[in-house]
Design goal:
Layout lengths: L7 H30 L4 H27 L24
């Protein structure tokens, strides 16, 4: 439950902590599956997919915290090979 005086940073930090705990639980499931408790490998795959989704969510939460704190910066560099490859179209 959100505290009435909580800042957006507080809320996002709490969410990041929840993501971290969920990720820890997913990896515990992966280890259990690897230890032979999952003969077909389905649980391990499901746990790994869950861990990937949690990592993506926690990255988004971390990005939101950085943006709120004014720490976000994005640099995009586009490089083209020699000859400048053309897309689409035909020569004839």
């Amino acid at each position: 439950m959100k505290k009435p005086d909580a800042t957006p940073q507080d809320f996002l930090s709490d969410q990041l902590a929840l993501c971290t705990e969920a990720l820890r639980e997913s990896f515990e499931g992966v280890r259990a599956a690897r230890a032979g408790q999952d003969p077909n490998g389905y649980r391990r795959v499901a746990e790994l997919n869950g861990a990937i989704a949690i990592l993506a969510a926690s990255a988004n939460v971390g990005l939101a915290v950085a943006k709120i704190n004014g720490e976000f910066r994005q640099d995009i560099t586009v490089r083209r090979g020699e000859g400048g490859a053309k897309s689409g179209g035909s020569n004839g």
